[in-house]
Amino acid sequence: MTETESTTDAFDRDSVRSASRVAIAALALVGVLYLFTLLPGVDRLVPLTPITVAAVASAVVTVAVVALLLFAAPKVASLTRAALHRTDAANHVERIAENGGAMAYWLVVLAAVLVAHRGLAGAVVPLLDGFAWAYDAAFLIGSFVPLVFVVARLSVTVDPLSELVADRVSGPESTAEADDADDADDVGDAGDAGESPGIDPAGSHGHSIEERWGADDEFGDEADGGADDESTTS
């Protein structure tokens, strides 16, 4: 195994371990929160506030889970990119891997925003009194940011993904077809370069038109014959 392959394997292992650690921690926090809500008295209001003890605990766990999701977003993007990446793949496959990693990142960020909206509602909305709509509006605007990035990455993935589907169904473009296309281009370029406004008076073997058609011999014999007749007459 080469040094590059060893480094790649170590990087992939570290990424998988970090992402799995974050996922396990988030699930553990959710499980602890569920057990906490089963305890007696957690549905009582906190003194001098309209918030229950369960809502406060839910808000604390929500903040922790959101922090874990934001921390895991780059790891998930790296894992997605590594899963789709192939060293000998075509250019459109590399673009799919890059866009897939970016979409995974922003989807995790969007999930963090949605978790925050759901988990903080019990502790924040009662404090807003008649302005509960502002809570939803703030998270709506915040969720638009990752959603826009997801849509943008998805739109630029349509073309390379369609090329990949065509390769899987119909097979990749053959080398013979590519060579024929290149030969056709070369012939066209050579024809354009060989065009001239006049006609070459020399033949393919370096002879002139008169020599190839015997014009010199014919007219030369006639000229010699005419000269002999004149000398005989005189």
TrEMBL record:
<feature type="transmembrane region" description="Helical">
    <location>
        <begin position="22"/>
        <end position="42"/>
    </location>
</feature>
<feature type="compositionally biased region" description="Acidic residues">
    <location>
        <begin position="216"/>
        <end position="234"/>
    </location>
</feature>
<feature type="compositionally biased region" description="Acidic residues">
    <location>
        <begin position="176"/>
        <end position="189"/>
    </location>
</feature>
<feature type="transmembrane region" description="Helical">
    <location>
        <begin position="104"/>
        <end position="125"/>
    </location>
</feature>
<protein>
    <submittedName>
        <fullName>Uncharacterized protein</fullName>
    </submittedName>
</protein>
<keyword id="KW-1133">Transmembrane helix</keyword>
<feature type="transmembrane region" description="Helical">
    <location>
        <begin position="48"/>
        <end position="71"/>
    </location>
</feature>
<keyword id="KW-0472">Membrane</keyword>
<feature type="transmembrane region" description="Helical">
    <location>
        <begin position="131"/>
        <end position="152"/>
    </location>
</feature>
<feature type="region of interest" description="Disordered">
    <location>
        <begin position="168"/>
        <end position="234"/>
    </location>
</feature>
<keyword id="KW-0812">Transmembrane</keyword>
